[in-house]
Amino acid sequence: MPFVHADSLSVNSVAYGDLVMTPSEPIEGAYFSLENATVYVDSIPPTVSLISPASGSQVYGTIEFTFLPTDNIGISNCSLYTQSGLYLTGTAILNGASNSITVNGIYGGPLYSSNLQWFISCIDTYGNQGNSTVFNLDTQEDEVGPSGGTSKLEPATIAILYPREWVRGTAVNVSVQVFNYQNKTYTPRNISVDFNINGVILNYQNSSDFIFYVSKSTRLGNHDLSFTVKDERTIQKNIQIAVVEGKVLSTKDMKTTSSLFWIISASVVIVISAITAVLYFGLRRQSHRAGLFNK
Fold it and tell me: Which sign, positive or negative, has the C-alpha torsion 230, 232, 233, 236?
């Protein structure tokens, strides 16, 4: 075991387990007032084990990079590295326990790759650095799923619920239903509509449903509407609607309606008259019978 004089003491000059000799009188600014002291300098780096995602796996969307750091003193911070370099550092690290660094929105970002190489590097409280092994991931989703089904990118599909005819001067309900690759509805980051119909959106019922008031000046005929949904990818759906005029009764329609009114009225009068006659004769018959019994 080598001896190191306190006058020349420094972290670089002291190795783990060195015996430090100090003078009997304390030196101003020195940590040692004992004549003999043993200084233990931490030179042991942390060990880091990767837990998930498993190497060689395929993951999408939000990814939790989970790891287990262990150190004989304590962990100061841990960082996520890829083949491109440092990506993210976490400081609230638990020593000897499972920790995670979460990354959202992988699609289109720096971690979007068919061969992402990643590892975790941790630094202990004395500056020693330890690295994990390197795992490989596939975060780049194909346009078609592994079984030839719907893409796992969101949104997978969209559906538009709407009336085929939009009447001038009225409000119409339009619903945009967005589905993920599991065929479940969800709310995407952005929905936009492109069309050339005069009017105004009265109110949003939620992020994908709205009520549209069709102006009375809107051109009659067919109109094309384009709906664009943006999230991990962008998909578009086009529909065609017909703007029509509200139904106005012509003179012929009014005459027909008037004739129907009088026919219905006459029928009602006849029915009422028949019911009245039945009731009248029924009462007379009952009165006659009552008279016979009273004699």
Answer: negative
Q: How confident is the model at residue 41 (pLDDT cuts 50, 70, 90)?
A: confident
17, 40 contact by CB (below 8 A)? yes
> Is 256 inside a domain boundary?
no
CATH number, residue 119 = 2.60.40.10
In a domain, 146, yes or no: no
d(CA 97, CA 78): 13
Find where tokens 């092994």 sit.
Answer: 133
Bond before 26 cis per omega within 30 degrees: no
Q: What is the pTM of this model?
A: 0.44
- Domain carrying residue 101: 47-138
Smallest CA-to-CA distance from 93 within 43, 46, 42, 40 is with: 46
Residue 293 lies in a domain: no
Answer whether residue 30 is part of any domain.
yes
Distance in angstroms (rounded) separating the CA atoms of residues 140 and 229: 20
Q: How many domains does the chain contain in total? A: 3
In this structure, are 133 and 181 located in the same domain? no
Q: Which residues contact 68 (CB under 8 A, 6 or more apart)?
A: 48, 49, 51, 96, 97, 98, 99
For residues 4 and 22, give the distance between their C-alpha atoms in angstroms, rounded to a whole number: 9
Q: Same domain, yes or no, for 212 and 166?
A: yes
Give the separation between CA 82 and CA 136, rounded to whole angstroms.
10
Whether 207 and 254 have beta carbons less than 8 Å apart is answered as no
| Tens of pLDDT, residues 232-250 | 778 888 888 999 997 654 5
Judge if 33 and 57 occupy the same domain: no
Q: Give the span between the Cα atoms of 273 and 291, in whole angstroms.
A: 27
